[in-house]
From TrEMBL:
Pfam families found in the cross-reference section: Glyoxalase
Gene3D superfamilies, sorted: 2,3-Dihydroxybiphenyl 1,2-Dioxygenase, domain 1
Gene Ontology biological-process entries: response to cadmium ion
Claim: Oxidoreductase is one of the keywords in the record: yes
GO molecular-function terms, A-Z: dioxygenase activity
Domain VOC positions: 2-117
The protein's name in its UniProt record: Glyoxalase/bleomycin resistance/dioxygenase family protein
PANTHER family, alphabetized: CADMIUM-INDUCED PROTEIN CADI (PTHR41294)
Organism: Sphingorhabdus lacus
Keyword terms of this UniProt record: Dioxygenase, Oxidoreductase
């Protein structure tokens, strides 16, 4: 079963942990000096926050977290059908986790990732080279999300 992922950049991690813990009625399942994550069942979401110097504040990216390779293959297929360039990052370390992931942006530059978490990491991890998704609409300073170019506007 898939899980929605939301990653939010914050100014004050401790204050935000207090706020989101009260909002969700639960403490984070992962807490680091610069990061916290809630794996909630109701609603079914992987909600993460981070406090990185120079990173954008607010929603950095959204994603779909899957539970196995078959679900990942299904979601990867959907990314290709959605159109636009897909950055196939592959095996990576990000947000204190080892994952297999790919990235895409919607027509307005909102960045989405599709990923399968394969284990924990003791380090936050690095961002890949997102040159193929470069542009001005997504947060250029997001923790691990690419800056992407929006598709041309249509009728609306």
């Amino acid at each position: 079963m898939k899980r929605l992922h939301v990653h939010v950049g914050v100014d004050n991690l401790d204050q935000s942990i207090g706020f989101y813990s009260a909002l969700f009625g639960a403490e984070p399942s992962v807490t680091k000096s610069d990061y916290a994550k809630w794996m909630l069942e109701d609603p079914r979401v992987n909600f993460a926050i981070s406090c990185k110097e120079g990173a954008a504040k607010g929603v950095e990216h959204l994603g779909i977290q899957v539970e196995d390779g078959a679900e990942l293959a299904d979601v990867y297929g959907r990314l290709k059908v959605a159109g636009g360039p897909v950055l196939e990052e592959g095996a990576t370390t990000c947000c204190y986790a080892k994952s297999e992931k790919s990235w895409i942006a919607d027509p307005d530059g909102v960045v989405w990732e599709a990923f399968l978490t394969q284990g924990e990491s003791t380090v936050y991890g690095d961002s890949p080279d997102f040159d193929q998704l470069s542009g001005d609409n997504a947060a250029a300073t997001a923790c691990c999300a690419p800056k992407v170019e929006a598709a041309p506007k249509g009728c609306c």
